[in-house]
Amino acid sequence: MKVYRRRTSGPVLRTGRKRGAQPKVVALGGGMGLSASLAALRRITGDLTAVVTVADDGGSSGRLREELGVLPPGDLRKALAALCGDDDWGQTWARVIQHRFQSQGELHEHAVGNLLIVALWEQLGDHVQALDLVGKLLGAHGRVLPMSAVPLELEALVRGHDPARPTDVDTVRGQATVALTPGEVQSVNLVPHDPPAVPEAVEAVLDADWVVLGPGSWFSSVIPHLLVPDLLDALTVTKARKVLSLNLAPQPGETDGFSPQRHLEVLGRHAPKLALDVVLADEAAVPDRESLADAAKQLGAVVELAAVAAPDGSPKHDRELLAAAYDRIFRMHGRIGPWR
Questions:
Q1: Could you give the 3-state DSSP secondary structure of residue 26?
Q2: Considering the chain, what is the average pLDDT of its residues?
Q3: How many helices (H) and strands (E) does the chain have?
């Protein structure tokens, strides 16, 4: 394992934080789960970094990836949109970059933000610089980074992928295919198997006060971060506290029939050396609290239950309720300084 040292500078309190600073938070994930987390977190800190998976191969992202050989921009775009402010400027730009063209031609279903991001990648030749520039244009309340600078492919071992052979285990490749597989996902890995992490993402994790993992598609958005060696090393040695945010319900195909505690068991199998501090779950989505607490304990964590679901009953997180839950966790579990 590589040895990392956390950088420090300037006068600090005995706790290690600069006086009056906000918590440095890094959120890992992809898709709508990460977007929900970012929309909540930007309400409680101004020092926020998203580290986004780059294994998407469907839709507009997949077409751009295949045609141009670029990183899939879709999840990066969604993260930037989630970081847009609630003022007219932020909401206008959030709508613009999320806008999809409707036509009978090649532009059909391409998202404006995907094209903008790819254009800047080609102009600047630097993934991080381009995303920082898009964030500046949008007035984003945080930074967005890819977890790796090379396009990745998700590979899964799936039992019963072919309904005619329900007990056989097949290798399934591609994020879009894995997400909708009719079988039971046993494990996932990335191709290439030893992808390089973006250095700025590693540095953000090492310098964080809190790292937030999830919610999101478990095998295609959450676990992939743990399969990038340098990123996993950073998550293992960082002094940051780590909170895992569970989904509100199993996802069709990918985690059908999974209990909350099974999500933790699967994550633990993929990264057995990773310790967590807190597992956040919606109180209405946990039928067996004792089993979840036992599974969390195996990862070194305690469980915090809170009402974080949207009040309309849909399996979506309410950003205000989720923000309140994160804020309470940050303050109750190892408060580092006067953040606000």
A1: strand
A2: 89
A3: 12, 10
